[in-house]
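S.,

As promised, the zinc ion run. Input:
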Amino acid sequence: MTAREVAAILREISQLLQLKGENAFKVRAYDLAADAFETLPPDPAAPGGLYERVAKGTLSELSGVGKAIDQKVTELVRNGKLEYLENLRREFPHGALDLVQIPGLGPRKAATLIRELDVSTLDELEKVAREGRVRGLKGFGEKTEQAILEGIIKVRARQGERKPLWETRPLAEQLLKRVQAAPGVTRAEIAGSIRRYAETNADIDIVAAAAAPEPVMEVFAVSPGVTEILARGGTKCSIRLRDGIQADLRVVTEAQFATALHHFTGSKQHHVKLRGIARTRGLSISEYGLARLEGGDSLQPASEEELYRLLGLAAVPPELREDLGEIELASSDTLPELVSIGDVRGYVHCHSTWSDGKATLEQMVRKAGELGAEFITVTDHSKAAHYANGLDLTRLSAQWDEIARVQELVPNVRILRGSEVDILENGSLDWPDSILEKMDVVICSVHQRFKLDIDKQTARIRRALEHPLCSIWGHPTGRYLGDRDPMPARWEELIEVAVERGVTIECNGTPHRLDFSADLLRIANRKKAKISLSVDAHSTKELENLHYAVGTARRGWTEKSRVVNARSAEGFLAALRK
Ligand SMILES: [Zn+2]
Ligand SMILES: [Zn+2]
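Predicted complex:
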């Protein structure tokens, strides 16, 4: 949870309270608190950030944050949900908050419309406004009615904006689970740009195979968080979820499944080129299968691999389907051998309660073992990261004692000793060389001073990468998807430095980071850089973020052979060496 998300939730509470007709004082308190949270750093683990404040109980030091809100936000951050909000949401029809979003309408008027005209969605409101029934209400006139109709168009446009993968993917996974458990479903998959691990997505697409579509759509249409059913036809159902995200389900027959999944996975550019290739082979592709242009039986490939084979191509993995040269390579059967999640044998970049993690070292190691890892790197923060409870020398040596103790308790997971070392403003590292020398893994990261100009920032990072004991370059650009842009630096030049100096580049799987991005990874891959698929886990749960690193790396054309943690612990250490 980030401070931005907390702010959005506080605003939602304020709006719900206004709908409820609560007094202006109480309502305003939530808006003021939301403003305060918006001023916090986007990275919740940053100095003065959300986690530090929750841990230290200093939220109420923020202006506008009183005791009641402090408690609510603490509950929200600790549990990921808030009882108070859930109860408030239950008091209003789904879609009520969409009405509040209409510019100039506001919660009070929205409440009147809901009460007097029994409307709860944009569509319903649009209908009564067109019928001229809004102007008759007290406090509304013809002008307001017109403004509402124009406002609805604006809200719809905003709802159509692309959303970050960290927001869409978990929702898609929840919907997928529901669909998979629906009556008669033989299989189902997430399709669309989420399947391709694009970092922003216009909507959620799910494809299911079942003999009878109706019962599946029935289950889908009443998923938790649905604010509106947008369309429902014979085989397709579209819903809108609470935060404006649209989700589409297509139900096809078992025989159509592979082509439908392929069709709805995209991308458009990839498909345009495939259709051209199909034509030269006398075929046409649709969501239902391949047809022969001169007529005759249509072909229904049983798998996507078979579909590509019918076109004379090697199977292109979903993450590569962007028309960036993958089709040409598929035709000569020279696609890169991408890393997959099963190849990864160790969790790299893990924090524990020694710094700002939420699980103890032993819990992290045991969980890594349960998930099948052969090794884990314990890389808590260094001293400069005081906001993240970074270690000093005394605590570092105490941590090493604990590592030795836990290693005896959990012999099947090799624990590698390391640190996530701050790159200081002048590019030096936050531990003396004599300490760095004793570590298996040294992850060097920027956590502060993101706003240096491009020359200073490039020089700062270059100096860190040139340090002989720097092994991994952590979350290189420092971006926070949707919240903080990459810092200014000459990335291509720095990639070259990393390659020359034998430094491994991180692909950080924190869903808000995905850093390096697929675009930069493609450059890193052209230059044959070594890559670490890191989790940057601050809890046992976050070890499960590995797939974000893998998906992003695959999208960035990352081959298994260059992934340092797609090896045994010994192999990993050897690969890090320069
Ligand atoms: Zn970090
Ligand atoms: Zn970290």
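The chain is about 45% helix and 15% strand. Residues 164 and 570 are 37 Å apart (CA to CA).

- D.
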